[in-house]
Amino acid sequence: MLTNIKSHHDYSPESCSLQAIIQAYALTTDHEDEEVENFYNEVQKTLNEVSKKDIIVVQGDWNAKIGEDAQEDWEGTCGQYCNQATKDRGLRLLEFAKYNDLKIMNTFGPHKPSRRWTWHSPGGEYHNQIDYILIKRRFQSSLKIAKIRSFPGADHELVMITFALRLKKNKKRGNIRIKFDVDKLKDPNILTTFQANTGGRFAPLLALDNDQYLTPDDLAETFNEALPEEASKLLGKPRVKKKKWMTDKILALCDQRRSEKERARGCLKHNNSNKAYKIVKELTDTKQARATTIESKEGKRLTEEKEILERWTEYCSELYTHVATNKDPNVLNVPPSSNNARDIILRAEIIETVSSLKPGKSAGIDNITGEMVQTGGEATIDMLLLICNKILQTGV
């Protein structure tokens, strides 16, 4: 690691800074509380002098015991993989970490007790976790693992972390060159529109070409703004051909497909399902098979067109033919026919009925849609009036 040290500064005998790494050695319990507070003040002073943009790591022998009982009150600052009980010096370390938004990382790893201890008594009778690595919370996602490794001949173990630094791409500054699809200017319509739009932007200035208040900077600024803005609206950026076999025709078809899909989504969004299904049908262009045969009343399959029409006529006649009896309530409730002129259908009724027809409906067997009737004019209304009154008068 020494080969990677860029700068080093000793702040005090207890702490030093290695770029953004602060190495600390806390006082033991033999010292007074005032001395311990002075130690934390020195570490805090060192931490304040480090740039907030740096990855800050504070590590060392803290001579403090943090227990499992501190996890609930200090959630997010320490984990559950630590000592059994928290001591006074451990509480002071937790306060320091909480104040500086630091996390005690080697208390979060799911290690068994023998892999948590960082200090052993000379006789091997006592084991404690008193060495910790603290890191800024904002960089915790870069930490992969924290673990303990043996160090022969010493009473302390090595506390290690694996740190994966995520580098942010440095954005380029300055003017960014935009490449427009100038091939679209070969289209006469686009060319005409482009010329008209830019001409409209320049016209006011051209009319004031002798104005003394116009400066070259003003003209150049307008010129430099107008052309790119209009090109951005009409031309856009050229399509990138990611494959060698892609041609302009293929890209044009892709654009058309994307446009139709957007139209379909827009229709569905505005509850215009009829138009949406029409667009989907245009895109799929699948022809549905129609039945060319039907069965006669006896179950014989009919294939000739004449026989099929006769069978349909027979079926419809039987469907709408009702043999009335004297006991039929529908017949008994029918009022007697009258030739009174007041019983005729009025023209206003026909107009109201035609106006209420819903658009977008399928045509019947006569291939006449509601829109055709509505736009047919006065003659169509008169014809419908005549037909309806004839039916009313004759009963046919």
From TrEMBL:
It comes from the Eukaryota. One of its GO terms (molecular function) is RNA-directed DNA polymerase activity. Keywords: Nucleotidyltransferase, RNA-directed DNA polymerase, Transferase. InterPro entries: Endo/exonu/phosph_ase_sf, Swc5/CFDP1/2. Coiled coil: none annotated. The keyword tRNA processing does not apply. This is RNA-directed DNA polymerase from mobile element jockey-like. It comes from Plakobranchus ocellatus.
